[in-house]
Every structure is written in structure tokens, then in C-alpha cells.
User: Fold this.
Amino acid sequence: MSASEKIMNISPVGRVEGDLDVRVYIENNRVVRAHTQAAMFRGFEKIMQGKDYQSGLIVTPRICGICGGSHLYCASSALDTAMQTTLPSNALLLRAIGQITETIQSIPRWFYAIFATDLCNKKFAHHPSYQEVCRRWAAYAGKHFQIGVTASGRPVEVYALFGGQWPHSSYMVPGGVMCSPTLSDITRAYSILNQFRNDWLEPIFLGCSVERYMQIKTWDDLLAWVDEKESHKNSDMGFFIKVAQEFGLDTFGQGVGKYMAFGTYIHKDLWNQPKIETRNNALISPSGFWDGFNFHELDHLKVTEHVKHSWYEDYPAAHPWDEPMPNPLKSTNLHHTDFDGKYSWAKAPRYDDHAVEVGPLARVIMAGNPNNKSHQIQDPLFLDIMKVKGPSVFTRTLARLHEEAKLFSLVHEWLGQINLNDEFYIKPTQRDGRGWGATEAARGALAHWVEIEDGKIKNYQVMAPTTWNVGPNDEKGRAGAIEAALTGIEIADPNDPVEVGLVARSFDSCLVCTVHALDKNGKDLTKFRIN
Amino acid sequence: MKCAILGFGNPVRGDDAVGCQVIEKLHEKFNNEKDHIGLFDMGTNGFEILFTLSGYNKIIVVDAVLDNQNKIGQIYKVPAEEVLMAPEEDPLLFLHGMKWNQGLSYAKKIMGDSYPTDVDAYLISISNISFIEAMQPEVEKARDEVIELIFKEVVSWLN
Assistant:
């Protein structure tokens, strides 16, 4: 380490102090090396082993308070493929509606409550738009902050209509869904979504109709749309496009340059006999791998996990179905970690031997694949943006915001396709086998692999989006997506490293943490003791 | 007059199940009071508290707390005002990391006059948050105590 190099530890990123630590090495105000350290052994595979084959439906939605619906989508389809069930069209629609409403809510909630408030940091105060940024997006006080955060509660009301509650519902089961909505449920769902559109989506966020926004096909189109009307320019989308470039968010946080999506929203008529090999074709939001130049069809068998830099006994990189039960080793705390050795509880997933980024940017790139089918999303915008602007904090954030209009139009369409007189569930026969279920959580590709033997779980593996993005180096010493995106960025003020936060937040890390350390925040609990 | 009781935690993370288990067991005890009592298993989604308060006069939060100062199973009753935490005090806050006390800070600002004034939290000291479906006996004992404390408090409030 050179004399001018400074090590900065930033902790915590997650809910519990120490859950995810980011260590960046700074030399002359530039990050020269970055490591992410997941600081907790999660041992999920061990809790599932030997349990009843359906346990994933109950346990996995509890992995995460934010993406419970996404885990349920995976758990139910993993069992569908293992048990070779038959799925009614209504069930595929209601599962997709659950998944999509969870994502639609996450976009404004993440943007206003988490991301945009960072733009009010004093680092940006010298920019001409700074005052307006704070007027709109400052935590609590921002005019649009309140409207956006409040509106974000609406979409999951639709989820709760069908799923009983959100989060942590278990209404998706092998063979279908455990609900049979009435006409008044459907009407209520439309009414909730219309309120969401009228309160926020069109007047505040887009400044135009959903239909007009979706006509944008290129970066030039997008810039022309911003200038077309005052309402577009003044919308949060239009304003973000201007501000992000003014603040330089398009200049850092590039990442690994390779993208992977498992895809989601299975078409109601294309997966009634669920099979892993027919899944790609049945998706509405397409799957795939983009290496920066070419698209490749997704094959889940090309997924492997590496443990060379993880606190597990070494084994060669393996597919989740073939991974041994993890044998945890002694971990070290952040300050005593050798980052050339083992340094994280996270494993390092790779696709076809590549470190990849997953998330909204990966999804909107896959939407530009010229080979997408007529039932799949076809949207060339981000292939063009990747050519003109390239990846960055701005591009990644824009990708997430861009999805909102299309997802809203899809859920409207699907609600109208539910046939109340048809079945919602076809009871399957229990059967041993291997299964794979996958989806796109709001923040990226999520998958469950299951192996059932004698009606019990032999192996259950969950690979969350954050595993792809925050994972450590692999066997060949190659960085994960966030590590790569942090390397090289300039830090203006090491005492307030807003750039590190913006990069990490642009990936929306999802380490699940469970306990609040209230006493760590200087609050003396002793005087409230009652036993 | 309506009271909402909100349990936070994770049933598959050892002692952290306690908040959810309190809610599950209160369902049996409050079986005849459905019109006046809202029981919510909030899981690990701290932000969602913002959307759960509306229409209630009294709020009781139940959660686990990592507290190295005192014994496992220690129960605290804390006015929520004492533990409110503004999200901007947490420089790297993520959606997944949002705590209910941060969610309450949002709620207080966003709900304005309709924010309920009577908000208390029962917090239970725990230590094991590994991925197992079992709580330590001290935490189970504290859970049962908290159930009785809440039941008495709410029945007396309703009368």
C-alpha cells in the first residue's frame, strides 16, 4: 500500500450493522480497489434440508421483507417444474400480477425514499438545479418526495387483494394459486391502479400519458420527448434526465459491462405444462445474457458459484444443483480481513464463467434483443443508450425508472384477461425431482433450485440479485459487479463519500437483515426496562 | 377507538421470530375484538408501517432488539418518540435496511395531523439471529410476558 493510500470503511449498508461492509481503497481521491464483505453466514441451505417439499413456499418469502412476492414466484415455479404440474391460465396471470405489482411499487419507493434524497447532498450544491432538486426530492420536505412515497403504497394493495397480504404471502402454490377473486376484486384492483396513475405516475412522474411515454425508442427520442412540452421537462423523469447529467451521474459506476436476466412474467398460455426448457419462450420480460456485443439465450445450467474468496471450505465452482452443503470457516472482522484470501460470507456467482450485472439495466437491455417474440417486451431504447452513453449510475437508475410505464400497462392488460369462471388451481401429484424457478425481483435476477427426494427437500439453493452484484472475487480474481463499479470512481470528500453511496444505491443492494440495533444509535434503553 | 399491534421480525431467523409470534398468539386472545384491534405481522418490512397506521388511535409495535448491555429476554417498553430515527441519520440506507422507527419518521412527516399520538414499542432483547426456526427459552418466556402485558394494556384502554 502506498503512503498516500487511505482505507475507508463504510458500515453498515444493510439493516443490521455489519451485514454488508464496503471497503474502498482511495489514492489521490480515487478508488483504486473496492471490496464488499457480507458479514453474516446465512446458512439458508441447512434450514431447508430435510423439510417437507413445500416448505419453500412458507420459508423463502421470509428471506426478504421487500421481495417476498418474488421469492414466492420462484418457490412455486421451482416446485411446478420438479413436480410436472399443470397450471391454469388464471394462475399464471395472478402470479404475474403479484410479481409485477411488487416491482411497480418498488420503483417510486426506491427512487424517492432512497436514491433521490442523495442528490440533495451538499456536494452538488454548486449546480444550477440543486435548489429545485431539494424542493422536489429532499427527504420528508420535498414536494414530490411525499407524493411519490405515498403513491408507492398503492400497487401492493392490488397484491394483497389476491395474495391476502403483502409482504410475506404464500398464495402461489404448485399447481396454481390459492385464491379465487371476484369481479369486485378485479374492479377494486383497476380502481387502485387508476388512483396510482392519477396521483403520481402521469402528472408527477411522466408529465404525459403512459402511452405517449412508451413511444420513446432511442436516446434522441428521449431527449426530444423532454423538450417537447413543459410538462415533460418538469416531470420527475424529465428533470432527472437533466439533473443526472448536470451532476455527472453519467460519468461513474460503470460495472462489469456484461448483463444477465432470468426474465419474468410467464405468459398465461405458454407455460401451462411447466418445464425448464420451455420457460425462456414463455416469458413476457425476456431472459438472456448480453456480453456487451451479442445476445445469448439463457441456460440456467451455465450458472456456477465460486467460494475461493468466501468463508467456506473450498470446492470447485459448481452449479447450484451440484453444490455441496456449505461448510463455514472462521470469519474475520472487517479490520482484520485479508482481501487476497477469504473475505465474505457471500459466494461469487458467475454466468458462463463471466461476472455479470443483474437488475433493471440487464432487463431493459434484454428487451432490445431483436429476436424477442411478439408476446415479449420489445424495446430498443437501452441498446441505443448503452451505445451512446454507456453504463453508469445514471443509466442504471434511468433503466429502473423507465420500466414503470411498461409494467403499468402490462398489469392493466392482465387484469382484463382473468376469466372468473375458469379454474385457478389444479391439484398436482407429489413427485420427486429437480426443479428451477426464477424471476426478476425489482432489483434483479432471483432464482431457486430445489431437489426433492422421498417428499423431502434434499437441496434448496437461493441465488438473490445481490449475490450477483455484491459477490466477492471469483476463482480467477475477477471482481463482482459492485466491486467493479466502485473501482476508479473519484471521491470528492472522503468524510462524506456520496459517490460510493450512489453507486451502491444504484444497484439497490438487498442483503436481508433482521434485527434493529437501536442501542447503537445512542439511545439509552435502560430507563425503559420493565422486567 | 381502534388499536393496531404490529409485530416485526423474521420467523426463520432464530430469536428474531418473537415479534411475529406475539402477533400470531394475540390473534387467539383478541378473537372477539376484531372490530377494535388490528393485528399485523409486518415481517421485515420496516417501511410498510407508513401504510398501516391510518385509521388507528393507538399503535403498539413489537420487535426484537440486539442489546449487548442486558440479559437475553429483557423487555423494554419505549415510547416510539424515544427511538424515532430520521433516515438521513443513516448515510447508506437501503429499502431492505429500512427500520420501522425510520418508517415512523416518514409517517410522522407525511401524515401530519392524522399521525397517531399514542405509539409505543415493546422491545425484547435477543442474541441469536442465525437461520434456524427456534428461539432461546429466555426469549420464549419474554414473548409470553409481552403477550400478557399487551393484552392487559389494550383491554384496559378499550374499557
